[in-house]
């Protein structure tokens, strides 16, 4: 038994060693980035300390002169073994490289945009040296990490698209936030224009500053997403990040902003005086969030059409789940507000706000759920089994918490509370959550039973002898990760028994990859037994004919 467990123990020790070394390299690079930023800042100031007794120069020198050589020595030892790393160790290297890549990119980009913004604003155009020092110091770390990731010798083989995908997600978030601020300021100026365009009370400096942030973040996103071809990376992990970061989260946040905006402008009895105030103070931010979120989601939804169908299905189910959660929350808030009207003889401002925002959540959530979930259309029961299981799990948690709070409030009312107040007023909030959860759970339980009945009655068709007369031939594809579009097309060959063997390297360009489909299909059709196709990262292909299996004598 000790002999069998020895290789596994050695692999664990090796992976632990790689984790410690790459973690140490990450820390050293972070310290080095801080030291370089501080030294460049002091150089721009002529090595004059900010105040007497300042230790900035000592910190910059110690961080740079200690962390720099140690990082170089450690990287010199690690780079010799990168090409021969096991998959688990290669994943550790990818995580470390992606972390340094994204953090250095974020620090440098944010510092540069802050510098541009403060130089535009005449009231804060001072003390620019720390921002420029941070921009240049972290840019040096980013350039070094970027060159390593682009090197064929040191590029990660596991999760190779992780650094670019995370960098693009950061740039997109930065662009979206900057665009929201820009649109909000523009709407504020349209709704409540300032008397002068130039002066201390003018909104032009803030508009120019937000424009600089938006343009810079948009340029950074364009460089990462388009120039670096992150949008062309197609593999399972990239599809997961694309669905989560670029479709589901923007879609749900856009729906939430739309819910709050609708709740803000809904006309309710007794709230007419607050309408103009809400429109001028809160509506611009929410409207800006809706417009920017809709723009981001629409663009990536269109880009998702070129990806496998599972991407569109997963994003549709995630957004429909988010819309359902918003609608259920709104239903619970509406029930809460109606019970508040029964518990008291007058409607307070709090109950009016609960009713208003509850109606907004309920209306927008219900419309979005109908649009994305498509309950009026028949769908494949197997495609939404995971969705239903996750929904029942979340519903059980919400229902359990609601029941616990209701029980606590009942016993508190009976045993502890001695002042005024009704039991209905104490339990109306958790009771509303419970009713909403039960209402949507009943529908999905009926849907789950219907899907289970359909799956049990649909028996797989047994092929007739004439349909099964075509023998299966082996088709082996040796290609790097990221060749899923090619695999999806080759799966359509009914006489092929497809096998994919991943190889080291980057995937070919999408155009070259799709051009290989007809070449592989033609060669496989003319091959009597089986075929192996070896695809290189450059897009070249080599065919190897496979021998037919030997026929055993009776």
From TrEMBL:
Keywords: Membrane, Transmembrane, Transmembrane helix. The keyword Transmembrane applies. The chain crosses the membrane at residues 20-45, 57-75, 91-113, 125-144, 165-187, 207-228, 240-267, 279-297, 318-342, 354-374, 386-411, 431-448. The keyword Translocase does not apply. Residues 317-436 form the DUF5671 domain. Pfam families: DUF5671. This is DUF5671 domain-containing protein. It comes from Glutamicibacter ardleyensis. The lineage of its organism: Bacteria, Bacillati, Actinomycetota, Actinomycetes, Micrococcales.
